[in-house]
Amino acid sequence: MDPNTGHPRRWGILGVLVFSLLAVVLDNTILNVAMKTIADKTVGLGASQSELEWAINSYTLVFAGLLFTFGVIGDRTGRKRMLFIGMALFGLASLASAYSQDPMQLILARAAMGIGGAAIMPATLAIISNVFPPSERGKAIGVWAGGVGLAVAIGPITGGVLIEHFWWGSVFLINVPIVVISMILIATIVPESRDPKPSKLDPVGVVLSIIGLVAIVYGIIRGGELATVASAEVLVPTLVGVAVLGLFVWWERRIDHPVFDVRSFSNVRFSSAIGMMGIVFFAMMGGMFFLTFYLQIVMGFTPVQAGALMIPFAAAQLIFAPLSQRVNERFGGKLSATVSMAVVTLALGSYALMDQNTPIVLIEIVFFVQGAAMANIMPPATTAIMESLPREKAGVGSAMSNTVRQVAGALGVAVLGSVLSSNYRGEIAPALAGLPAAEQHEAGESIMATMGVVQEMGDQGRALVQPAFDAFVNGMHVTALVSAVIGLIGIAVVARWMPGKPRPVQHAETKEPAVV
C-alpha cells in the first residue's frame, strides 16, 4: 500500500469500521433511555441512582483502563485481529447484560462489555490512520465521527421502541446481530496492520490507573449518596485514588514504555485538544444523565418519545461532523473550537432555565445547537491528537484520546450525578418529613425512588409528586450551572493554548515594508 495514496478499498474499509463502532456507541445511547425502566422495581431491576451510575461507569472505567494496553497489543499483534476479538467479547458480554438478574450482575456484565469496547475503539482509528493518506485522513475521521452521530441518533429511538415492546434486556440483545455482521465484514474486507516497532506492555501502569480511577469515582458517587463530602467514606477513597494516580504519573515518567505517555502533553497541540475533548465529555455525559429523568419523569414523555426528542442533537452531529474539518481549515482550530465551546457552554447553562412548563420546541432547538457545536469540536480535536503522534503509533494515539474522553465522561456522570443527588436529597427532605425514617431515606435517594414510594402509597402518595418534580428541577438547575462552569474552563483552555490557523510563510525578499 502506497502511504501517499492509501489503500485502494479504504472507503469500504471505513464503512465496515463505522458499522463495527455502531454497536459500542448504540449501546451507550440506548442505555440512557432505558435507565428509568431498569430503575423500576416492577418491570426492571429496581436499581438505585448510584447503581445506575455504576452501570454506566463500570463500563467506562474498564474501557478507559484497558484502552492503552489493547492499543499497544493491537499495534503489536495486529489491529484487525484485536478488532475481531473485541467484537466477539462485546457480543458475549451484551448477552450477559441482557439476562442480568440484579443490578450487581448488570454492573459486572457492563464491565465485561468495557473489555470488548477497549479492544474495538483504538483499532478502528488506528486502521483509519493506516489505510488513508494524510490528505484524506481528516475527512475520513469526519465521516467516522458522523457515523458516531448516526448511532447517537438511532440509539435513543431504538431503545424507546425496544423498551415499549419488549423487556429491558432487549436494549443489550440488539447488539448481537450487529456484532455478528461486523465480524463477517471485518474478516473479509479489513486488512491487517501492525507497528513495525511496537511498544512493550506496561501492566503496572494499567493496574495503577484502574485502581486510582475506580477509587476516585467511588468516593464521588458515595458523596452524592450521603449528601456530604466530609465523611470518611468519601474522603478516604477519593484521596487514595488521587495518591494512586500521582504514583501512576510518576511511574509513567520513569519507564521507557509507558501505557500513557504523559510526556506527550508537552506538545501544545496535543494537550489542548485532549483537554478540550475531556472537558466537553465531562459536561456532556453528566448532562445526559439528568436529561433522561427530566424528559421521562418531569416532562412525562414515554421512552420512545424521549428517544425521539434526542434526534435533533444527533442529527446536528450527523450533518455538521463531516463538514467540521472544512470549518477548521477555513477559520483555524483556535477560533472554531473557542466559538464551539462557547456555544456548548451556553447550551449547558440553558438547562438551568428549564422547568415543567418549558416549550418542547425550545428544548429541541437547544439540543440541535448543542449537537452542532459539539460536531465542530470532536473531529478536529481527534485529528489534532492523531497527527501529533507518528503514524505507526496510531493505536496508542487513538487510545490516549479515547481514554481521556471516557475517563472524563465517567467523572462527569459521577460528579454531576452526585451534585444532582445531593441537591435532590436536600430539596425533597421537608416533603418527606411525615414518613417513617426508613422510607424517608429510601425516597430521598432520587426522583425514581420517590416515585416508587408514591406508587406504593397510592392516593396518599400523590402529595409527594409535585415536591419531587420541584426538587429535581432545582437540582437539575444547580447541576446545569456546574456543567456550564466546566464549559467556561474549556473555553479558557482552548483560547489560551489551541494553535490557530497556520499563517503562510513570507520570505524576506517579498515581504512588504511595515507602514509606520
From TrEMBL:
Highest taxon of source: Bacteria
**Location in or out of the cell:** Cell membrane
Task: Name the UniProt key words of this record, in alphabetical order.
Answer: Cell membrane, Membrane, Transmembrane, Transmembrane helix, Transport
**What are the annotated GO cellular component locations?**
plasma membrane
Q: Name one GO molecular function term.
A: transmembrane transporter activity
Cited InterPro entries: EmrB-like, MFS, MFS_dom, MFS_trans_sf
Q: Which CDD domains match?
A: MFS_MMR_MDR_like
Membrane-topology descriptor: Multi-pass membrane protein
All copies of the Major facilitator superfamily (MFS) profile domain together span: 13-502
Predominant subcellular localization, coarse grouping? membrane
| Membrane-spanning intervals of the chain | 12-34, 54-73, 107-128, 140-159, 165-189, 201-221, 227-251, 272-297, 303-323, 335-354, 360-386, 476-495
Protein name per its UniProtKB record: Drug resistance transporter, EmrB/QacA subfamily
Q: What organism does the record attribute this protein to?
A: Nonomuraea solani
